[in-house]
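User:
Care to share a sequence and structure tokens?

Assistant:
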Amino acid sequence: MNSPRLMRRAISPSSSTPRSVYGFLVPALLRGSPQTRSASTAAASSTLDAAQAPKPSRSLSQHHRDFLDGALRVNHAGELAATLIYEAQTPLVTRTHPHLRPLMKNMYDQEAGHLRKFEALLAKHRVRPTVLYPVWRVAATFLGWSTAVMGREAAMACTEAVETEIGGHYNSQLRTVLEMINEMDASGEGVSQELRELAECLRKTRDEELEHLDHAVDNDAKKAEGHELLTNVIRGGCQVAIWISKKI
């Protein structure tokens, strides 16, 4: 039997073999015809295009749509209330504790940024604000002013109570949105960029709200007179406001 080396030598060009003969034999044996190469390239390109093609996106179900409407309406109302609370607290708190001015401004600025974001999302998704918008304005302003009158510790206890409820609320919303995304991924359907952006928005907002909670505790929130009663009343009011805003 001829060895592989002898087989290779048998088709190697010698000085007496015209290059045209070798050029005729080798493409046929080793490279394939131009038609074959063209067909192979087209097949590989088609496979790559199919692999990179975006998955078809699925419209949100009515259940998911109802969740989104309620979530955006509540978040908008909550951020409105937060900005009004800080707006009412800041003059009184910083008058006697001027070192807190940068902190109060930073928390207000972040809440104002959240409010602008959810205002934009309401308009984008055509979700109406809660009909109790005027009521929440008055209630939030009164809450901010009254706790500031009670002193720095009470104002911080107010922030502690509100952010405890709101932080948990955003966490629950984020969990639901991530479950929606995972469900769509598992079914092989595309997830819209808008849904992924909403998840990131909720994550960022939640983290900043929980930072405010930490700031409040660091600034003696728990030293407020009647701390437990005060925070429980405020948390209860937040829970009622969240429930109502989801509905109307």
About this structure: The chain is about 80% helix and 0% strand. The longest helix spans residues 62-96.
